[in-house]
């Protein structure tokens, strides 16, 4: 059994005012590429942390710099080959070598204030599913002594913070009101989680080999895995220089790189607002599982009505009905259950078009807040988040809601197929 506690939904506020009985062991993974001066500044700031030094481990991972960086005694240095922008692989390498109970990821040019580790480690030490993001502020630190206190040097040379990010944290109450698209506010340059949860979710996707996107993909996967997302505004780390989005806004190459990142994420994050409006994604947002049907006609009506309401879903049917649906690639038979945000379990064939509104609302709402499951007649709509928490803790940590609906009783062997297709039934 995992140590610690869980909270309903995303209610990290229930842990306000609670501190770990003992400071956790923290491993700081710092990703570096040809930034010796910036790395020196970050390592100097880590030596000034209020978190106990004997419970802090620092691992620097160099992403193939021509010359290895210099690190002081007591800092572990790992290196990987220069094969593109491999921050994802570098973070995974550092995490695999880490021994702390809590992982804190920093970039070499992101300098933490003295209380950073203490504040970042609190929630993951209490609730192992907590994924926390600090406040990344921006300043011009060039030319300053590397040991200049960043809590003074940062405000003195402050540069603008991204307004969209500040708005996102404000409107979500520091991610307390997180939803399926809150992955956008998780930044790997100032990220923390328990090592247990990182290993459970799996590391960053190492197929990301250009700047950006790997942190959002990981954060979305973590969300589906039951993460409790929290922004910790008083855990401040200063990025040396402006935000990436604030540089060279008219540069076509930078805009093209952002488009490439967005295109890559459409397949990895198939939720509405991130996927295409008409095109299908390689990833699965809603997976439907039909348990049984009394006849081919009943199976047809059931699957057809489900896909009419949820056209981006995929459906698994019993093998005896597979031949009915060979023309539609959304329908499969057997095989592993896909990783999806929502699982719709249909134990017996039903016709759902008469409850289209209720079904869509259930699919959109589960996994957000404290709602994990909706029972719509015989149909069960279950969120991946609720299922993940249930597996870990052996109990329900999300609410289940039963909704009265116009769903028909399970279909008989003669479902009135001609009337259904012709529209007179």
List keywords for this structure.
single chain; 425 residues; alpha/beta; Spore Coat Polysaccharide Biosynthesis Protein SpsA, Chain A; 2 domains; 9-stranded mixed β-sheet; 7-stranded mixed β-sheet; 12 helices; 21% strand; elongated; GT2 family glycosyltransferase; glycosyltransferase; transferase; Nucleotide-diphossugar_trans
Bin the strand percentage: 15-25%
Could you describe the largest sheet, including whether it forms a barrel?
A: 9 strands, mixed
Q: How many discrete structural domains?
A: 2
DSSP helix fraction: 25-40%
Total DSSP E strands: 16
Mean pLDDT: 92
The value of Rg in angstroms is 24 Å
Number of helices: 12
Instruction: Kindly provide the name of the CATH class of the largest domain.
Output: Alpha Beta
Shape: elongated
By secondary-structure content and strand pairing, the structural class works out as alpha/beta
> Helix-strand pattern, N to C?
EHEEHEEHEHEHEHHEHEHEEEHEEHEH
Indicate the CATH architecture of the largest domain: Alpha-Beta Complex
CATH-defined fold name of the largest domain = Spore Coat Polysaccharide Biosynthesis Protein SpsA, Chain A
Query: Which superfamily, in CATH terms, is the homologous superfamily of the largest domain?
Result: Spore Coat Polysaccharide Biosynthesis Protein SpsA, Chain A
Head-to-tail CA distance between termini: 53 Å
GO molecular function: glycosyltransferase activity
Organism: Paractinoplanes abujensis
Keywords: Glycosyltransferase, Transferase
Protein name: GT2 family glycosyltransferase
């Amino acid at each position: 059994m995992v140590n610690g506690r869980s909270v309903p939904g995303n209610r990290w506020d229930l842990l306000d005012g609670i501190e770990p009985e003992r400071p956790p062991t923290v491993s700081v993974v710092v990703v570096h590429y040809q930034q010796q001066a910036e790395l020196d500044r970050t390592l100097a700031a880590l030596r000034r942390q209020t978190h106990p030094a004997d419970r802090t481990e620092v691992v620097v991972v160099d992403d193939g710099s021509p010359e290895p960086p210099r690190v002081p005694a007591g800092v572990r240095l790992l290196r990987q080959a220069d094969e593109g922008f491999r921050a994802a692989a570098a973070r995974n390498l550092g995490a695999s070598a880490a021994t702390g109970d809590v992982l804190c990821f920093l970039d070499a040019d992101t300098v933490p204030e003295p209380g950073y580790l203490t504040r970042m480690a609190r929630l993951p030490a209490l609730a192992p599913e907590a994924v926390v993001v600090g406040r990344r502020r921006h300043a011009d630190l060039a030319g300053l002594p590397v040991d200049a206190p960043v809590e003074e040097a940062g405000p003195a040379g402050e540069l603008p913070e991204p307004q969209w990010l500040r708005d996102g944290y404000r409107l979500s109450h520091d991610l307390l009101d997180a939803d399926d698209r809150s992955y956008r506010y998780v930044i790997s340059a100032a990220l923390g989680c328990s090592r247990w949860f990182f290993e459970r979710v799996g590391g960053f996707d190492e197929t990301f080999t250009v700047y950006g996107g790997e942190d959002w993909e990981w954060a979305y996967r973590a969300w589906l895995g039951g993460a409790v997302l929290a922004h910790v505004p008083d855990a401040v780390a200063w990025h040396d220089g402006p935000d990436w989005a604030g540089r060279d806004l008219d540069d076509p190459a930078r805009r093209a790189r952002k488009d490439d990142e967005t295109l890559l994420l459409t397949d990895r994050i198939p939720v509405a607002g991130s996927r295409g409006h008409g095109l299908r994604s390689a990833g699965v947002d809603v997976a439907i599982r039909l348990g049984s049907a009394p006849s081919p006609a009943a199976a047809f009506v059931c699957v057809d009505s489900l896909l009419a309401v949820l056209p981006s879903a995929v459906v698994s049917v019993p093998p005896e009905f597979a031949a009915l649906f060979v023309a539609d690639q959304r329908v499969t038979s057997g095989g592993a259950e896909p990783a999806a945000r929502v699982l719709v379990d249909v134990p017996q064939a039903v016709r759902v078009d008469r409850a289209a509104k209720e079904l869509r609302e259930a699919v959109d709402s589960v996994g957000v807040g404290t709602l994990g499951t909706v029972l719509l007649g015989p149909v069960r709509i279950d969120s991946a988040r609720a299922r993940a928490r249930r597996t870990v803790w052996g109990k329900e940590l999300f609410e289940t809601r039963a909704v009265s609906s116009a769903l028909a009783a399970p279909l008989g062997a003669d479902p009135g197929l001609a009337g259904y297709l012709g529209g007179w039934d």
